[in-house]
Amino acid sequence: MAEANVGWGAPRIHGELLKLGIEVSERTVSRLMPKRSTAPSQTWRTFLDNHARDLVSIDFFTVPTARLRVLFVFIVLSHERRRVVHFNVTEHPKAAWTAQQIVEAFPDDQAPRYLVRDRDGICGEYFQHRVQGMGIREVRTAPRSPWQNPYAERVIGSFVMENKSPVLCCSPLCGVDAGNAVCA
């Protein structure tokens, strides 16, 4: 019965056997079911290690400014040497802007094979088509799993820890002239 109906598990087969009048426990059914062999697949860590030369990560983080605005910082990080390849700042990130940042990060056919990113809505359909057109394969992380993009998260964490002040000021990024601002 299990071979004829591969989608059925032990509870379903147990129920069908009871309908036929065969009294057997579900545990017995599960023990007697043929074991399905699945090809071993690599773990996420193994994937990152095996493809480090061909991997880049992208991510966004926010920075509040002295003028009470929120800026979005976009980073592109190479896994091979764990270095920031490209970054840019905007107030209103859109899919077209994000796609343009990828093009600027990898000019002249220098695009990596894989792009690790989270499931952020900023990376919309336009972004996906642009990345696919560059020959880059997107690898999206599982929802709420920052550990799957460890290097980008580490860079962001380092930036946040080194800039203890919660407000970015005295910087051209926030549009505040250092002579007119009170810096913390």
Please tell me about this protein's structure.
This protein is an alpha/beta fold. Helices cover 31% and strands 19% of the residues. A 5-stranded mixed sheet has the order 3-2-1-4-5, with helices on both faces. Helix 5 links the parallel strand 4 (114-117) and strand 5. Helix 1 crosses helix 2 and helix 4 (95-105) runs parallel beside helix 5 (125-133). The model is unreliable at 173-184 (pLDDT under 50).
Strand order of the largest sheet: 3-2-1-4-5
* Gross geometry: elongated
Q: What is the straight-line distance between the termini?
A: 72 Å
- How large is the share of residues in beta strands? 15-25%
Write down the overall mean pLDDT. Answer: 85
**Uncertain regions spanning at least 5 consecutive residues:** 173-184
Q: Sketch the major β-sheet.
A: 5 strands, mixed
What is the H/E string?
HHHEEEHEHEH
What Rg, in angstroms, do the CA atoms define?
Answer: 25 Å
Number of strands: 5
Q: What level of helicity do the residues show?
A: 25-40%
SS element count, helices: 6
Helix vs. strand class: alpha/beta
